[in-house]
Known about the structure:
alpha+beta, 7-stranded mixed beta sheet, two-stranded antiparallel ribbon, elongated
Amino acid sequence: xxxxxxSKLNSLSIDCVIFGFEDAQIKLLLIQRELDPHRGSWSLPxxxxxxxxxxxxxxxxxxxxxTGVDNLYLEQLGAFGEVDRYPLKRVVTIAYxxxxxxxxYTLNPGPDASEARWFPLEECPPLPFDHxxxxxxxxxxxxxxxxxxxxxxxxxxEKFTLLQLQELYEAILQVKLDKPNxxxxxxxxxxxxxxxxxxxxxxxRAARLYRFDEAKYKELTETGFSLRELRLMGG
Amino acid sequence: xxxxxxSKLNSLSIDCVIFGFEDAQIKLLLIQRELDPHRGSWSLPxxxxxxxxxxxxxxxxxxxxxTGVDNLYLEQLGAFGEVDRYPLKRVVTIAYxxxxxxxxYTLNPGPDASEARWFPLEECPPLPFDHxxxxxxxxxxxxxxxxxxxxxxxxxxEKFTLLQLQELYEAILQVKLDKPNxxxxxxxxxxxxxxxxxxxxxxxRAARLYRFDEAKYKELTETGFSLRELRLMGG
Lengths: 235, 235
């Protein structure tokens, strides 16, 4: 690797899969493209990496441009670089996924888009380029991760009910879970701290609120756990 | 993303972390660089991506150039792209890791290297660029993966003893494991198929050979498992 051949690859972009959880649904943040190619389509937000910024910094910048916030849960999915993924030119993209709480932010579509909007995952419009592959990879990663690390909490409010937690897992894993079994498994992890507070009752009995134990969260993020049996309980 | 800015990033490379398992040790395949920068250093094998090949194909090509073999276990680790990772130019690299069986191949250092050699991980020479970070990321991934997917078998001979399997896990996790506990955990996974064959005895009693059950291997690769307790048994 002495001489870098100048002409070989002419660009590198970032694309972000941004997940939220609202109304018991997983949602996806998309932008409407204002530029060619695929002008007018809804696509994953992204952009080119500047010469003077690292790739992770570029993904943080794009996310901050859209939400006004930094320090969000943001992880790299990997590079996507099939030869024909982008028309006319060779562009490799580095994909990231982020977990955020939809209600907390005022969206800003950024410089190359006319609009930014949350879509329920099931109502996702057709995506251009290889964005369907990138999205599928993000979904697979999220499904795997929530069964082995406690990252799902990045999608929940600070205080949540056990029902909300179960709905989150059901929405991510796309299965119905058995309530006593789910609660028993989670209890065994020692991750949940019960509070002396209750959800405001609407038409039913007020449910206890929980938050996650910070120390245990860190420990389990590092060591991982297994909730794979959850998937087998689907009904 | 209408116009791709031609001058922003001038190149993209591939780097491969190639692990093997031999003499109860994890080994790393390195090449000695024949070109600047860092001429003469031992580094991760790699190269530039050709215009007409996808990124995964590029990593397969590099691996095949070195070993003469394809269809090896090869996974992307992700992109590494700090601004100053490469001298003078901006080069982002996409890192892969591979698992191979050292004894099976005649090594070929490839066009830009004078030599290719297996190093025990503990005797790894100082690596140039951000290769130490890439290696650490590969080690972390391997340690995580062997505790949740049965990928370790890609490092073992087709038929192996339970001692070899334990030595593999000890080498990867860098801990001593409790033998009965380890065997019990593995037995529970139903992954091992005992054979009516025995290792050639040298100075001790001949040990039974095992192989992994193909169907179960596929199932566990998909669903994952948890062997995290293994790490807590270190002595």
